[in-house]
Amino acid sequence: MIYVGKSNPKDKVRRCHEIIDRDRLSHIFPLKDYYDYVWFFWVRLGSMWNSKIQHGMTVEDDKIMQEILTMLTYDGSEQGWAVFSRGLHDMTKGKGDILLTVFDNSEKWGQKVDHPHKFVPVLHEEITGVHPEHHCNRLILPGSAGYIPERVVCSECGRTMDKYIMYRCCTD
């Protein structure tokens, strides 16, 4: 498990890292290496996005672009997110508010997990079953390729997203 936080880790990420280390919640990278790994994770996603765009791929017809879009949307969110996987093929992901709802209701679905290999598939089923009445996704696209697509669809509901130019100073 690795806490990757945001593409521009700030003091909040350092505090989370310290808590994970202090409370022995997981094995973690030393803080001096951690920022390099987080940077590489987000830069790699951006590079994959730009490469796909340059090859004429779109979110509508490319599963990898859909997944990249989802991860980039999570980065634009203030709610947090998580990805769970087991092995190469079982994977699920979700925004923080949906995950908290699912885990708060775990007494309703927990009995379906009668073996460790069932956890991720059951969790995926529960996450995809939660449809919030309202959601708002923000997407910050990597701009190094100089190309901004005319149309991007929401990774959650499939509707075309409104396009804005945003400048932001965040001291989080």
Automatic annotation (TrEMBL):
<dbReference type="GO" id="GO:0010088">
    <property type="term" value="P:phloem development"/>
</dbReference>
<dbReference type="InterPro" id="IPR027944">
    <property type="entry name" value="SEO_C"/>
</dbReference>
<dbReference type="InterPro" id="IPR039299">
    <property type="entry name" value="SEOA"/>
</dbReference>
<feature type="domain" description="Sieve element occlusion C-terminal">
    <location>
        <begin position="1"/>
        <end position="171"/>
    </location>
</feature>
<dbReference type="Pfam" id="PF14577">
    <property type="entry name" value="SEO_C"/>
</dbReference>
<protein>
    <recommendedName>
        <fullName>Sieve element occlusion C-terminal domain-containing protein</fullName>
    </recommendedName>
</protein>
